[in-house]
């Protein structure tokens, strides 16, 4: 797992995960949050495809134009 | 400052390479001071696994942060990713080594399956055979694409790095990785922050006396993801 943060306190916080454990109920509760239906796909949004990249670029330009 | 000694590092390639389960991601960190500073803090906090990519444009700052940290190169696991818009993975690996200022990568991934699942793989295998990286793998490969590249591979991918969290559990993909002997690594385990305030996560976090981010990461550790 490769969490990213640009803030020092978050970087430290994200590393403190080896001194506690979630119990079975908590794990099962979190398992219930899946929105992918247990998919075999790697991504819902293939952001690397030319169409998706054009869409992302367009979105950025629009939001910049709106200031 | 913190303790990552409990990290259940996973062995790749029959134990030849140990990949720490917790790494520091650098996507969207701008080259220069923002990356240099953040990677420095991560190393100081005890992270021993840094993930970058040719497409992030920040490899040089990652490399400088590593040198400036004073942490020995051998103690840090470095991943970068081949930008498959480029022609040859081996050539690009050499450029990454120059930018990072290291002699060898620990893990080199095809960033996404551009031009088909197998297109970049021969260059990746050459990079491995010539010692440019200790292990090679893929990222953003569906189960079918992973099976496709494995079927034609002389060296199978050691890792498939995909977006994974309780909100994107991808059980069928995890099962396919298990069958093919490919370790699954999670990117965006914190959902870009979008679901950190989800009531269920907040409730579990409150009960555990932890933050939502720590709960999402701990879920990944206990589900065996890298």
Report helical residue fraction of chain B. Answer: 25-40%
The count of DSSP E runs of length 2 or more, i.e. the number of strands of chain B, is 9
Helix fraction bin of chain A: 40-55%
Tell me the count of domains of chain B: 1
CATH architecture of chain B: Alpha-Beta Barrel
Kindly report the average pLDDT value of chain B: 95
Order the strands across the largest sheet of chain B as they lie in space.
Answer: 3-4-5-6-7-8-9
User: What structural class do helix, strand and pairing data of chain A support?
Assistant: mainly alpha
Structural class of chain B: alpha/beta
Which residue ranges of chain B are poorly predicted, with pLDDT under 50 across at least 5 consecutive positions?
none
String of helices and strands of chain B: EEEHEHEHEHEHEHEHH
Question: Strand portion of chain B, in percent?
Answer: 15-25%
SSE string of chain A? HHH
Largest sheet of chain B: 7 strands, parallel
**Given the structure, what is the number of helices of chain B?**
8
Instruction: Characterize the overall form of chain B.
Output: globular
Rg for CA atoms of chain A: 18 Å
Distance between the termini of chain B: 23 Å
């Amino acid at each position: 797992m490769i969490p990213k943060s640009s803030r020092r306190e978050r970087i430290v916080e994200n590393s403190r995960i080896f001194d506690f454990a979630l119990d079975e109920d908590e794990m099962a509760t979190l398992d219930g949050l899946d929105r992918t239906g247990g998919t075999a796909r790697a991504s819902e949004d293939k952001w690397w495809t030319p169409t998706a990249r054009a869409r992302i670029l367009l979105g950025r330009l629009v939001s910049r134009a709106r200031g | 400052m913190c303790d990552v000694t409990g990290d259940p590092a996973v062995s790749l390639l029959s134990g030849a390479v140990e990949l720490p389960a917790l790494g520091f991601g650098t996507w969207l960190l701008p080259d220069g001071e923002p990356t240099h500073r953040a990677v420095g803090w991560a190393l100081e906090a005890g992270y021993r696994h840094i993930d970058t990519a040719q497409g992030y444009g920040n490899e040089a700052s990652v490399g400088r942060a590593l040198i400036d940290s004073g942490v020995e190169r051998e103690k840090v696991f470095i991943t970068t990713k081949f930008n498959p818009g480029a022609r040859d993975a081996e050539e690009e690996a050499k450029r990454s080594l120059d930018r990072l200022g290291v002699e060898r990568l620990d893990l080199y991934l095809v960033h996404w399956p551009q031009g088909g699942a197998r297109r970049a793989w021969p260059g990746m295998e050459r990079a491995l055979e010539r010692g440019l990286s200790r292990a090679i793998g893929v990222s953003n490969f569906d189960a079918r694409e992973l099976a496709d590249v494995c079927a034609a591979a002389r060296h199978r991918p050691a890792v498939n790095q995909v977006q994974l969290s309780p909100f994107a559990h991808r059980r069928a993909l995890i099962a396919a990785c298990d069958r093919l002997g490919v370790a699954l690594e999670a990117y965006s385990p914190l959902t870009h922050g979008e679901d950190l305030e989800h009531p269920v996560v907040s409730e579990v976090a409150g009960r555990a006396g932890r933050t939502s981010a720590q709960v999402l990461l701990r879920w990944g550790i206990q589900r065996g993801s890298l």
